[in-house]
Amino acid sequence: MTEMSEKTCLARALSATLPTPSTPSSKGCAWKEARVLVINTGGTIGMKIHDGVLSPEANALVNFLKSLPIMHDEQYAQDTKLYERYAPADNTMVLPLSKQEQRVVYTVIEYSPLLDSSNMSTKDWAKIAEDIEEYYEEYDGFVILHGTDTMAYTASALSFLCEHLGKPVILTGSQIPIFEMRNDGRANLLGALLIAGQYMIPEVCLYFHFKLYRGNRVTKVDAESFNAFTSPNLEPLANAEGDIKINWDTVLKADTCAKFRVNSELNRNVGLLRLFPGITTETVRAFLQPPMAGVVLETYGSGNAPDSRTDLLAELTKATDRGVIIINCTQCLTGTVVMTYATGKALVDAGLISGGDMTPEAALSKLSYVLAKDISLQDKKELLKSNLRGELTANIQGACLSDSRFIQLIAQFLSISCKEELEAIRNALTPTLACAAAKIGDIKALEAIREMGGNLSMEGNDGRTPLHIATCEGHLKVVEYLLSQGANVYAKDSYGDTPLRCAVRFRRKDVVRLLRKTGAHLSPSEVQGVGTEMCSYAAQSDIEGLEIWALAGMDPNLPGYDGKTPLEVASAAGNQRVMDFFQNLKDLVV
Hints:
Layout: H1 3-15, E1 33-42, E2 47-50, E3 53-56, H2 61-66, H3 74-79, H4 82-85, E4 92-94, E5 103-115, H5 122-135, E6 141-145, H6 151-161, E7 162-163, E8 169-172, H7 185-198, E9 204-208, E10 211-214, E11 219-220, E12 229-230, E13 238-239, E14 245-246, E15 261-262, E16 270-274, H8 281-287, E17 294-299, H9 310-321, E18 325-330, H10 342-349, E19 353-354, H11 360-371, H12 377-385, H13 405-414, H14 419-440, H15 443-451, H16 466-473, H17 476-484, H18 499-505, H19 509-517, H20 524-527, H21 530-539, H22 543-551, H23 566-573, H24 576-583, H25 585-589
Parallel strand pairs: 1-5, 1-6, 6-8, 8-9, 16-17, 17-18, 18-19
Antiparallel strand pairs: 2-3, 4-5, 7-15, 9-10, 10-13, 11-12, 13-14
Helix pairs in contact: 1-14, 1-15, 5-6, 6-11, 14-15, 14-16, 16-17, 16-18, 18-19, 21-22, 21-23
């Protein structure tokens, strides 16, 4: 893009005005309530001492949480009839009002039996993922309570099983049970709930000791300390030691160009083999025998093995020749596999794939996930080399912020040059520029903003993102572009509206169809009162209004305030066109 065209695009964006914010729902403060599902799989956080040892105790956690004012605001629950609005009432609680003036309502479902994480299996991973899928449209985020011993494995596995994820899934637990006077469970659970309910981070994460990590980047490094986990090769996604600070430059963009789904198929014929001086050929040969389909080989340093051991290299070569996929990962906590030494090149010649800077937990989970796919061996190898969920550092050189001509002009005018100040300028300008460009449908301006490193999902006026603005205006091509750049269809503005709700309000049919195709759905708070609105449309023969709600996925049998359905209202009013509409509704939506 030339300097003149870039200036022109950005000037057009600056000249646009933002649309008037939508009116909040009249249903009390429901639009300020975020819903989080807590899946309690077990682990130390909910254990009690039985016969001198810690073990999970069923149905103990919820009652205890309800007794803690910091974990449940009983007065608010009573005043707002929370238990009548959310089911199951016995397992639903609400946090006190946050600094963001938002409430996090959370419901706990508990597995039976509760598990020590040492007993976790691939079947349990699949169950967790399938439960997320079952409740995906009902909740804004998910928190998984889990034991710490295998939490890194589960976090890695879930990151691959959950495809096209657009909402936060956060694993947490504790080193000391939450029932103890001195424990880390309350802080961990509270932090996970606040982040899952208030920040649209479309990743499987792990929250522990005031840090939010990418789930497939962590490993457990301490059996006793509260600071039990680390992310060796990627900085935390968030820090909550004081105020919660999200590192948005590190957070993955939402993969919401397709509907969320779970692929729970895993190949269990995989394993971890750690090299050590003196390892025998017989050990390696036995480990690589069928039905072994994939192996993570933990090597020395930057991916090295003894090139003098032709016997070992021969066994590795025989295995890769018959289709066993072997990933080379370093035994070191930090660093990456590189072909710097002859001892590393020997493994490449033997047919091994570089694991880059993946943790062994992530590499094993990824191998199990990819091997279960019905694709060719070569395609599987290519997937394993690719960065699927942020599990490895891609060798991509991004555009330098200081290269942006627009930023250069402003920096020159303000006489600044340091990276931090340049980033501050960019972050301050991006929301206004991007929202304005989205309003006038200027994709070139959005592309220019993206090229200078701007995040096209940042909130602008009234918490609305460019995707909110584009849907209101009905700019289908802009919506398509923003989705391709990772815009999140589940983001809520300050009034609790998602982009889909905006598209419905302004009756943008094509946009509604596109958003639904990518998995968008209305949140529970947005659905409140829809039945009454549809009944009103039915009484007025407003076919277009009924059609837009149908396209948005609303049940046409939703009752209004008096319990009557829209069809019953239309029938009572003798509106034949509306009755015909409902008769043909199935064909219309399909």
